[in-house]
Design a protein that fits this description.
With 154 residues, the protein is mainly α. It has one domain (3-128). The chain is 81% helix and 4% strand. Helix 1 (3-26) runs antiparallel to helix 2 (33-56) and helix 4 runs antiparallel to helix 5. The longest helix is centred in the last third of the chain and has 41 residues, at 112-152. The radius of gyration is 20 Å and the shape is elongated. The chain starts with a helix and ends with a helix.
Length: 154
Amino acid sequence: MDPLTFIIRILAATVAGAAVGIERETNNKSAGLRTHTLVAVGAAIYALVSLRLLEESTTGDPSRVVGQIVTGIGFLGAGVILHRGPNVQGLTTAATIWSSAALGCLAAFGFYWELGAATILVIIINTTFKKLDFWFLREKRREKKTKKVDDLFE
């Protein structure tokens, strides 16, 4: 792999990770711009190293490195999940970190259209679905209040 290809792929991972990170940063999440950018870049570097080694040898499998990236990011994601009594916080942040690693892998393998589409999709999910979550929670609270009132009259 020539140096220009390496640089382009690293920059693509940087842009994708930063785009997701900016969305998280604007929502004041614990993992924001720097975290998501570094996760995407780090995943891309590992995948690029794997590709480079594959060029120099006839044996090897870059999918094994990708599998190890997924495992490693799982530990990083677990670090942002907090348990406070019956409540669990940070699952979406952990899933977004995991997604940022996948974006880095897409960039490393040169899947630029897929990278763009996936980046946009992650941002849409985090912004649009948040509104749906709020709506569902509001409906749940309304049902609980109705049930409490009904229990009083039984």
